[in-house]
Specification:
The complex is a heterodimer. Chain A is mainly α. Chain A is built from 9 helices and no strands. In chain B, helix 7 links the parallel strand 2 and strand 3 (194-199). In chain B, 26% of the residues are buried. Classes of the chains: A mainly alpha, B alpha/beta. At the A-B interface, helix 1, helix 2, helix 3, helix 6 and helix 7 of A face helix 1, helix 3, helix 4, helix 5 and helix 6 of B.
Chain lengths: 184, 242
């Protein structure tokens, strides 16, 4: 029976990776707003995780461990593609394409407006916001994932939500102008 | 507490990050302060909107790694099954019943050796396939390979590695296309345990389109990437697709 059970749990680690993959992708997308890049980042994260699986002592911490690898991959990506030292304050508008009329129309929808607003946030704020809101990590877990103090998590989150609120007001569809006819 | 609640505290309240005492105090204030109530509502609304905005996002394609690792797992499991059957037969024929416990232990340890081809204590053997012309993938293949070779060397462990390029990934090895001529050459000099291989099928496919295919020096050509990977898997290599 023990042999059979070994067959059944041939590799629980890979199964866990498979289960968490959509979450990694969702967060990668919320950081990059680029489907192909998100896929690449997740792929890189999984390769690194497979390579260093022995470093994970506590399987309970697998989720935050994987997200910290993702955060490192994301940081590396920027270091490779942009000459910059600190991504935390980076404002990245690569996903915003103002010239597409269809997109302009679609942006009226809530989802696109929110994504647009999130994309406008500085990277450090965007990362904290999405980890807390999408994956429901605690502040302490986010601090560990991004290797920043808990106080920084709190202040970034606070600034992110303030900015998000302003951006959403900015992107809100305008009310149709009232036609005023002057009758003499 | 009216008008004195900081935004940080309200965010922590919305994210369920404050203790029961502070929470009770805030609930009390909320009952008496409409502005505070509105601020909390706004924060909750923002949180929900962010969740909603990314709820539907799924990977456009399930990329190769987990899927292909399944194949590895399947091959390993199959090999383990055959090995167990064979070993069980031999042991059943040669060893008496009183040695059952020892037999069982041996089977288990051998089974584990086959299973754990991922990270070997003594020597590792890894084949990396790159099948996409995406520059990020080409670079990742080289970065990961170099990093692995380096880390094994530093630990004093042996590692055999092979990069097999097929499909669009052949760009990595085409002398007139690659941006990594010097790097590949340097890697081959630095690590004699690295084999770089091109897929003949992919080369033939390009030739049919009229493309003249010339690979970098010291690159071996395999009949097909699939055959090469299959052979390596049967030899106990681990497989990663970039």
């Amino acid at each position: 029976m023990k042999i059979l059970s070994l067959f059944c749990q041939v590799d629980a680690f890979q199964e866990q990776l498979r289960q968490i993959r959509p979450k990694l992708y969702r967060v990668a997308f919320s950081w990059s707003h680029n489907a192909a890049l998100s896929d690449d980042l997740v792929q890189e994260t999984l390769i690194k995780a497979l390579k260093s699986r022995n470093q994970l002592r506590d399987s309970e911490r697998m989720s935050s461990w994987l997200f910290s690898i993702l955060a490192n991959c994301w940081r590396d990506h920027f270091r490779q593609t942009r000459a910059m030292e600190d991504i935390d304050e980076l404002e990245d508008h690569c996903c915003i394409d103002d010239a597409d009329p269809e997109k302009d129309h679609a942006q009226l929808q809530v989802v696109n407006r929110v994504q647009e607003a999130v994309a406008r946030l500085p990277m450090g704020q965007r990362q904290v916001l999405t980890l807390v809101d999408l994956e429901e990590f605690s502040y302490v877990e986010v601090a560990n994932i991004l290797e920043i103090p808990v106080g920084t998590v709190m202040s970034r989150l606070c600034r992110a939500r303030q900015a998000l609120k302003l951006h959403l007001q900015e992107f809100a569809p305008e009310q149709p102008a009232r036609l005023i006819r002057r009758v003499i | 507490m009216k008008n004195t609640v900081s935004d940080e505290l309200l965010n922590a309240f919305v994210d369920d990050e404050i203790g029961p005492e502070e929470k009770s105090e805030l609930f009390g204030s909320l009952e008496q302060d409409d502005v505070l109530k509105m601020r909390v509502c706004e924060l909750r609304g923002l949180k929900e909107m962010v969740r909603h905005a990314y709820q539907q996002h799924e990977s456009p394609k399930m990329q190769s790694l987990p899927k292909m690792r399944d194949w590895t797992r399947y091959v390993q499991t199959l090999a383990a099954s055959l090995f167990l059957l064979l070993l069980g037969g031999i042991l059943g024929w040669t060893v008496s019943e009183k040695h059952d416990a020892t037999k069982y232990h041996k089977v288990l340890s051998l089974f584990r050796v086959i299973q754990n081809s991922d990270v070997k204590q003594g020597a590792g053997k890894i084949i990396v396939q790159v099948s996409d012309a995406n520059p990020l993938r080409l670079k990742t293949a080289l970065d990961e390979t170099e990093s692995l070779l380096n880390s094994y060397r530093q630990k004093g462990q042996n590692l055999k590695m092979e990069i097999i390029a097929s499909g669009g990934g052949l760009d990595l090895l085409r002398s007139d296309v690659t941006r990594y001529r010097d790097r590949i050459s340097a890697l081959q000099k630095e690590y004699p345990n690295l084999d770089v291989v091109g897929c003949k099928q992919s080369m033939d496919a390009l030739k049919k389109k009229g493309v003249v295919v010339k690979l970098l020096p010291n690159v071996r050509v395999a009949s097909s990437a699939l055959d090469e990977i299959n052979m390596r898997l049967q030899q106990g290599w681990d497989y990663v697709r970039v």
